[in-house]
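Worked example

This section walks through a single chain of length 250. The input is the sequence exactly as stored; nothing has been trimmed or padded.
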Amino acid sequence: MKLTLKIWRQADPQAKGETVTYPVNDISPDMSFLEMMDVLNEELVNKGEEPVAFDHDCREGICGMCSMYINGEAHGPDRGITTCQLHMRKFKDGDTIYIEPWRAKAFPVIKDLVVDRNSFDRIMEAGGFVSVNTSGNTQDANAIPIPKEDADEAFDAATCIGCGACVASCKNSSAMLFVSAKVSQLALLPQGKVEAKRRVLNMVEQMDKEGFGNCTNTGACEVECPKGISLSNIARMNREYLSASLTAKD
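Given that input, the structure is written out below as tokens.
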């Protein structure tokens, strides 16, 4: 396959970025998108040019690092996958592909396609944890009865990999799907009940501090999420937040 890549290049957060065109040849349809990017970077290095900076790690759809906006879609033209799971067979010979970083105030560009997603980490630090009593009387978690429906919903929420596709897909750059998944994961389990009220208040407050927008209710986040995190988690988070807010005022 012969392709034309139009890639956002930006040297650093303060630099003015621009779209640069690169032709690539002999791309196998069986390559992953990141492998295609590796081919491009190898060519650039051999020419003595600066390679394109992009995030990647596991390349197995688990870590959420491979954040790319491809032809106007987070993770590209497929559903339920990350960029590293996108294969070049989704494109046709001769295609022009536009590749950009996530666009959000809370995700500032570091370089080229790499953005700073530490805002997600700070939200997790605000409440995405449970306190464990290690006094010696700790109850084995496996011995705590949990309704299967709750366990299943908690597991579904826990599949969120924090890639940020929900933010990149939202017109308001909202992080509510991410935050609600983390709130739901713990709110549904007994271990998370102790800090439930403080957790949701702190995480939502931190989300707002980071500069994420409000939910648009369009559902683009769920559509583009590589793990199919449900919008029902946002509804649950709103209920948890309302309940915690009313209790805090008592």
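What to look for: The domain at 3-110 is CATH 3.10.20.30 (Ubiquitin-like (UB roll)).
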